[in-house]
């Protein structure tokens, strides 16, 4: 089969190679699937660079989530059949940026029929992260104000839709007019272009000086530091990631004085510590997709040969919505 492989670490455009490799085989409790679609995620970029917390042995095929058609079942697998259309994470080193991939039967789920392959492939990590972050970690309530950074990206776009579905007033921060239009289409009530506007000032103005109740931050660094200036009394800042490249330190005296919470979110740990909650989140997200309340924004559908360029552009911060490998 054809697959993108990383044999040395660096920028995706420099280290990704499209090669012929042997077909993978499913191990116990695993599934072999034909890849129907696999979106590029920032962890794929970071793994190419060797900067992600998960560091697969070289060589490996990235593509941390996908929609696939089941071709074979490993030993001990129940509840699936050949031909099933499923979504979930890949089992590295056999990721989704290939013709075939391996998935873990324990954390794979039926693909919602209302979504096409590319949309369904994008429903897992970003939306699960948003669901656990907003509902379980931040306890977002209807009527509260949610500030979403990087609102036109994969994770941010999911948070905007989930915030609106929860009845929150959503303020989205983006970079540039094109991304601003995307955030509006997604349903954000207020859109801030960080290139021309000060998000702290706008949030204070839009909330009568109170600030945002929940801040969803996949960027980190200076974005986090400035977010502390517009967090409400008893607000919650969700630490989702560090796409900006800098891992900030928190001034805990400031959190004490303003009575806000700094809440960490590593969604992947729920697969280890609370798998039933992941399954319940999938059912809730599938119901929202069926009702039309959420729908992954797929901006680009790329062939296998064009995929490396899309991954690099994601890493460079110039993509909008989801960039998906869709054969």
From TrEMBL:
- Domain Enoyl reductase (ER) as annotated: residue spans: 13-325
Among the Pfam families in the record, one is: ADH_zinc_N
Gene3D superfamilies according to UniProt: Medium-chain alcohol dehydrogenases, catalytic domain, NAD(P)-binding Rossmann-like Domain
InterPro entries given for it? ADH-like_C, ADH-like_N, ER, GroES-like_sf, NAD(P)-bd_dom_sf, Quin_OxRdtase/zeta-crystal_CS, Zn-ADH-like_protein
Please indicate which superkingdom the organism of origin belongs to.
Bacteria
Please provide, alphabetically and separated by semicolons, the GO molecular function terms listed in this UniProt record. oxidoreductase activity; zinc ion binding
Q: What is this protein called?
A: NADPH:quinone oxidoreductase family protein
| Species the sequence originates in | Nocardioides cavernaquae
Its lineage reads:
Bacteria, Bacillati, Actinomycetota, Actinomycetes, Propionibacteriales
